[in-house]
Write a structure and sequence with these properties.
Elements: E1 3-7, H1 14-26, E2 30-35, E3 41-43, E4 50-52, E5 55-56, E6 67-70, H2 75-79, H3 83-94, E7 99-102, H4 106-111, E8 119-120, H5 127-132, E9 136-137, E10 142-144, E11 149-152, H6 158-169
Parallel strand pairs: 1-2, 1-6, 2-5, 6-7, 7-11, 8-9
Antiparallel strand pairs: 3-4, 10-11
Helix pairs in contact: 1-6
Amino acid sequence: MAKVATVITDLFEDIEFTSPRDVLIEVGHEVITIGPEAGHTAKGKQGEAEVTIDKSIDDVKSADYDALFIPGGFSPDKLRKDDRIVDFVREFAFARKPIFTICHGPQLLVNADILRGKDITSVKQVAIDVKNAGANFYDEEVVIDPSGIISSRTPEDIDAFNKAIVEALA
């Protein structure tokens, strides 16, 4: 089964992390949380979820993972100022490994400069950012780019997103 690297920090959108994580684990995949500091307890912006970061970005290599998951909320915006995280994300794109992102998650893809010519969706307020980064934006519940990027808009689309990421790893 797949090892899924999840980049996350404080103010992630609770259900956009917990629901995909739970579904991935349920079907047998391993989900590893990665952030600036191992052991940090990241809190969801709704106050409904907390997650202890498994590994520091300094202690991981993209080659050790099969896919990357970027939950939404304010977490991606906070993480994109960290060049180590941005480089980690970029490595998944260059290796053409699956990248799963929802809501504000594409902000990290914008900073990694990997969206030119890619098909993607996001929450409405990030749409202009992905368009300016050269992506083809679609206002749909799930968009699957041939490169392996699977994107979704909001918690309302979570079931379709979960189905798409499970199928991608099957």
